Amino acid sequence: MTQSVLSLPTRQQIRQQVRQRRRGLSARAQRLYARRACARALAYPPIAQARRLAVFLSFDGELNTRPLIDALWRNGQQVYLPVLHPFSRGNLLFVHYSPQTAMTHNVLNIAEPRLDVRAVLPLNKLDTIIVPMVAFDRTGQRLGMGGGFYDRTLQNWRQHGFTPVGYAHDCQQVEALPSESWDIPLPTIITPSRLWQW
């Protein structure tokens, strides 16, 4: 019993393994999976019917959100991107994003819109938030990069009234994740091959 508990991978080991797996996908596979996931996302009512959605810009082998963002724009839906809060460390703001938006890179070297307070939307005005992750398991538990940004954002999602939807490659699924009290499981995760719901 003790042996099996000791042999369970840590959160950091899972992050390393899954990020490596994700980065190992060929450019062709990435394009194919991005198209499949986009089609699945656009068929899901909380995304298809949303007026205002927060999406993330993919990096480090994440499932490419560009086809989804372009499709949302074509459908006349408003897209918002996460921006690191300048004064409240560990928190995110969501800023309107259009093809004309001026971009910058944050301290994590992730592209984000230049902060303009006029373009910030409060969480309770968002309909849906597309959530990135490093890994997920069969119960909807999500493992992020370790900064807790999305855990804080999702903390009271039901009260805010938006729907969180995970967006990931199939290869990011693991059997089970060690969870902490602050981890927020997701009600829905979209992968190229299926829609997971809990």
From TrEMBL:
Gene Ontology MF terms: 5-formyltetrahydrofolate cyclo-ligase activity; ATP binding; metal ion binding
Enzyme class, first EC level, given as a word: ligase
Binding site for substrate: 57, 62
Pfam family, one: 5-FTHF_cyc-lig
Binding site for ATP: 11-15, 142-150
GO biological process, one term: folic acid-containing compound biosynthetic process
Keyword GTP-binding found: no
EC number: 6.3.3.2
Cofactor(s) annotated in UniProt: Mg(2+)
Catalytic activity annotation: (6S)-5-formyl-5,6,7,8-tetrahydrofolate + ATP = (6R)-5,10-methenyltetrahydrofolate + ADP + phosphate
Domain of life from the UniProt record: Bacteria
Sorted UniProt keywords: ATP-binding, Ligase, Magnesium, Metal-binding, Nucleotide-binding
Alphabetized PANTHER family for the sequence: 5-FORMYLTETRAHYDROFOLATE CYCLO-LIGASE, ATPASE INHIBITOR/5-FORMYLTETRAHYDROFOLATE CYCLO-LIGASE
Family to which the UniProt record says this protein belongs: Belongs to the 5-formyltetrahydrofolate cyclo-ligase family.
Full protein name: 5-formyltetrahydrofolate cyclo-ligase
Gene source species: Tenebrionibacter intestinalis
